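Board notes (copied after class):
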Amino acid sequence: MQVTETASEGLKREFLIRIPASDIETKLNTRLQEMSTKVKQPGFRPGKVPMALLKKQYGPSLMGEILEQAVNDGTRDALNEKGLRPAMQPRIEIKSFEEGGDLEYAIAVELIPEIKPLAFSDIKVEKPTVMIDDKAIDEAAQRLLTSNRVFEKTEDAGRAATKEDQLLVDFIGRVGGTPFDGGTAKDFEVAMDSAGFIPGFIEQMHGSKAGDKLTVKVKFPDEYGNADLAGKDAEFEVDVKEVRLPKAATLDDAFAKTIGFESLADLKKGLKERMEQEYAQVTRMRVKRNLLDKLAAKCDFETPTGLVDSEFAGIWQQMTGQAPEHDAETCNDPSHDHSHDHAGHDHAGHDHEGHDHEGHDHPPATDVLKDKTPEEIEKLKAEYRTIAERRVKLGLLLSETGRANKIEISKDDLNRALLNEARRFPGQERMVFEFYQKNPEALEQLRAPVFEDKVIDYILELAKVEEKKVTAEELMRDPDDEKDDVAGAKK
């Protein structure tokens, strides 16, 4: 095999590879020899069919397979011989081949950049911590009491509903005079302090009495989940059947037993444990964001264009529902699954300016580009491409850190990830387990976040983690909102 480097620029390399006809012939004969023990030919015993006859009958149909094997083996050997680590699958172009002749093909490949080890011990990371005192637990218990309150029908026919009450109603909703799916209900319980209804729906029921018939006029929000109703005016005919008053309740052992606890003390203990778990998860996310910000500032290596193109394509597809224009010269395949050295890393923890989008709802894809000018779309593309480049850099850094420090995913790690995944679907755990047992490739996808977390933990062990006491409100607040507040204060 002859390998000639034809181009070298940054991380991009191009080679011309020539594989002698004799090597092709050897591969073909080896494949035919494997077949000979199974081929049945009249007049010949298995394994005794002449090679010439086999080649004449099966050679043409096998040649495609042989050439593919030759290209794959040749490409792998050429890259290994030169000590090159491809970032993505190389782009292959057959230059020439005739039966009985040499195979000549070109490969274009982008390489994993050289990533110098970072001094993680120099990195300072802030870890917000919340003290859960008795007051916080009591407030949580009180909210639980309120959310589990019981209502009773009032015998006072003239009692007007207040914010603390509940109504039992029937209603029919119409848009343009026509009832719509999901807009009709009977014996529907409406707490007057409920959230989540269409703006104005509950407010127009305040002060109503049993027997009242109301016409409630509202407008569905522009971003309403049902596109057929979004932004449209609607009218609801509401029949108020009962006004119900909250039944007096006390935060005591009796209440605790109604919701499955042995006592009030047991309830408060459970609340504290749940709060600790919730705060621990949010703290982890905040520390991770902080660390990724610090790491991103230290990523000064070149990024493979193909990886950035692929990452950008995924972001653009997710955010707009459209596939971006594809440039074949970038060696990028938007459907490529990143099966390269930085493989297994799905960038799930990386985001816009280093922040996760966990818990954030993306706007509907059709809304992202709605009413935008070509200039605004290009600006949006530039923003998403910056995000893509950041994700790729962080992914490469974490992958290289894991590789250099021999961080591996054990079977126990994967089993814990599978168990956590199953817990996300209460009552369907067995189905989840069976799905992953039948789909090994899906199980492999769980490796990415597990690997990332193990690398993050490794870095945090070396970094200087400084605890900072914060309130629960400060901890749970969206970091993006905090950034906006800081920007506003500087104006």
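Comment from the instructor: Residues 264-490 form one domain. The two ends are 66 Å apart (CA to CA).
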